[in-house]
Input
Amino acid sequence: MYNHKKEFDWQTTLEFVKQSTYKILHKRNANKIEDDKCIRCGKNEIESWEHIWICEVNEFSIDEIVQEPIYRFEQQLKNCNQDEDINILRNYNIEFISILESPSIILRGKSKKWELIRGVYNEHFNSLSNKKEEKMLIKRLWMFVYDEIKNRLWIPRCEEIKRLEEKANIQKLDLRKKRESRRKFGGRQGRKNKK
Ligand SMILES: [Zn+2]
Output
């Protein structure tokens, strides 16, 4: 239907997928999430994978997170005295954001931010420059933004869900214990045996 070959940089996408950062995304069983109600806000969502990122209980919105990393990335470059890279970054940061905010061709009704969240590298980022070192820096920026989203939304969410699940399991266990002890010690006979 669409010319996927030209729209995306599959080489970069696949290299990226191989990296360990992406594995964290699958730390929890993603399929399991898709069938469930959101344990945090209690909403029954059909597109659960999407809901993870827009859940109203999230501390940050995707839009908030996408804007900030550029500044943080620049700070990181500054700390490493990478002045040339800072110049490249300043030349391309506005275009970088406009690509992210432009509509995605394959994800209907969504911006290219959602491609980034999916880990798919859009070819438009490559066409920003012909110079190899500039392309590389834009790629690094992209990965930085991806990591920021993951660290500020995905990981806190996983931890919170783990906590909620543990709480639910303890309640279930308590209920079972109560039921068992009622069975054991229930009735006249049982009560007599109870120490
Ligand atoms: Zn939710």
